[in-house]
Design brief:
By secondary structure, the protein is mainly beta. About 5% of the residues lie in helices and about 55% in strands. The protein has a single domain, classed as Autotransporter beta-domain (Lipocalin, Beta Barrel), CATH 2.40.128. The chain is elongated, with a radius of gyration of 23 Å.
Length: about 375
């Protein structure tokens, strides 16, 4: 980690949820006078909020959900080793016309994603899912003066926000018993996010110019993407556990003559039900993503984010979470959840910003 700021950033949120968590109405159903015939709802019947497509619904049931994700990248990596901005501009080649070495270096990126989901089960075996995304991205940069050297000219910031790609999925259950449950995930990502956004930048010659933003600052992939996977859930007494594999396979090249890299991810988790209304979880995830294939001829600036080879790599994350579900009249079935995630290993392709801690907050309600 380049700093401990992400941990401090979320400290008050985590303290609130873990000490003052909810009003008494979330507590035992018997304490609230709920009928014995109305079975308590288990908070751990859903996976940690950072896992998508983890559960199916009963025939005729709907669920709406909202997630807010706060992610940050800070500092730089070359492979799995740290590198300074001065180190970048003195050692990293610029593959485009102009300076021999990179002259603009990103130092920090923040991304906020809001996700609105709807699930519907036409049968006990099949659940359909729709996910809409709204994304806000900001990237900070240092511009170095002239064609070489480590004299800084100044800093600038680029921002982008709007609708991301839309995802539609099916969850098809093919095995279930009293302990184990397995379903197939099959999704399609629709290219509703823009890939033609631009912003003002500070060039090494001191001019401010309006340029097409690099690949990582765009809002979508520009391609239809197949998202196959498989999910397993298990339960016994107060313990639940699960595992999921999901892939993103790009179907062709987008209109800007490039294709984001395919990705493959595996995650495993375990949760413990303290009471019916509250459970805690721990999760480990691994993701590998390929480099970008092709190139947009409007993204040619001497900055590492303009080079398609500086995308993808592998990352391992560890996460802790809390799931809550209301039991009382008026809030029964309403769910709140939080998950805090930190990277424990990163190995990037080329030179990239380093991922930091992230936080996911969520609300779900089935009816």
């Amino acid at each position: 980690m380049s700093s401990n700021q992400p941990y401090k950033k979320y400290q008050s949120i985590l303290a609130f949820l873990l000490t003052g968590i909810v009003s008494p109405e979330f507590a035992f159903s018997h304490d609230l006078g709920i009928s014995d015939q109305m079975a308590a709802i288990r908070a751990d019947s859903h996976a940690p909020i950072g896992v998508m497509g983890d559960h199916r619904h009963k025939a005729g049931e709907w669920m709406v959900s909202y997630r807010f994700m706060d992610m940050e990248k800070n500092g730089l990596l070359r492979g799995n080793n740290s590198i300074t901005p001065d180190g970048v501009v003195t050692t990293v080649a610029n593959p485009f016309p102009g300076p021999a070495k990179v002259r603009v270096v990103p130092t920090k990126m923040t991304a906020h994603m809001q996700m609105l989901g709807v699930m519907y089960a036409p049968t006990d075996t099949l659940t359909l899912m729709l996910m809409l995304n709204y994304i806000n991205k900001t990237m900070e940069h240092i511009t170095y003066a002239g064609m070489s050297g480590t004299n800084t000219l100044g800093t600038f910031k680029t921002t982008n926000s709007g609708l991301g790609d839309t995802k539609i999925s099916t969850l098809w259950g093919f095995y279930s018993d009293s302990i184990h449950n397995i379903h197939i995930n099959l999704g399609l990502s629709l290219p509703t996010g823009s890939i033609k956004e631009s912003d003002r930048v500070l060039a090494p010659n001191g001019m401010q110019m309006q340029l097409r933003m690099p690949y990582g600052m765009q809002l979508g992939s520009g391609t239809y993407d197949l998202e196959p996977g498989i999910t397993y859930n298990g339960q016994y007494n107060q313990w639940r556990w699960g595992a999921q594999y999901l892939a993103t396979l790009r179907l062709g090249q987008n209109s800007q003559e490039y294709t984001l890299g395919d990705s493959h991810g595996v995650t495993v988790w375990s949760s413990y039900s303290i009471q019916d209304w509250i459970s805690t979880s721990a999760r480990i995830s691994y993701k590998y993503e390929q480099e970008i294939d092709g190139m947009n001829d409007k993204v040619l600036a001497p900055v590492i984010t303009a080079n398609p080879d500086n995308y993808g790599g592998e990352i391992i994350n560890a996460a802790l979470g809390v799931n809550l579900v209301g039991q009382g009249s008026g809030i029964r079935g309403h769910r709140l959840a939080i998950e805090y995630q930190v990277p424990i290993y990163q190995d990037v392709h080329g030179v990239q910003l380093e991922s930091e801690a992230s936080l996911t907050l969520g609300y779900q309600y089935a009816f």
